[in-house]
From TrEMBL:
MF terms in GO: ATP binding; ATP hydrolysis activity; ATP-dependent DNA damage sensor activity; mismatched DNA binding
Annotated GO CC locations: MutLalpha complex
SMART domains from the UniProt entry: DNA_mis_repair (SM01340)
Organism: Onchocerca flexuosa
DNA mismatch repair protein S5 domain ranges (all copies): 22-128
Gene Ontology biological process terms from the UniProt entry: mismatch repair
Name of the protein in its database record: DNA_mis_repair domain-containing protein
Amino acid sequence: MDGKQHQALVTPGGDASIKDIIVNLFGARFEKGTILDIIQQEPDESVCALYGISDHLKFDDIRITGYISSCVHGHGRSTADRQFVYFNKRPVDYAKLCRIANEVYQQYNRGQYCMLILFVDVPPGMFF
């Protein structure tokens, strides 16, 4: 066309899962078995103390889902370039949240960063 090489981006259509789309976008290295579902759990007292969280009632209205790469060595990345956070279906740049994910990930896979796709749904008007 204009002398430059272009790469066609093709994703599965229809009823493809988000995991299928991740594998197609990021390559075979992220096979379905190496991508883990993020399951929401309310933090215990020690986690709340560590991160300075005092109001536990806020967690009742927040829904967290997503995907993260396995902690097995070789499934991480050398950079934090594949970390995506969405609040109420809108992309945001939330460095603190990515830093927390990387700190936990590096407890199990030192020197590598996780592939992270995180969806956070909060009620309209809820502020942190």
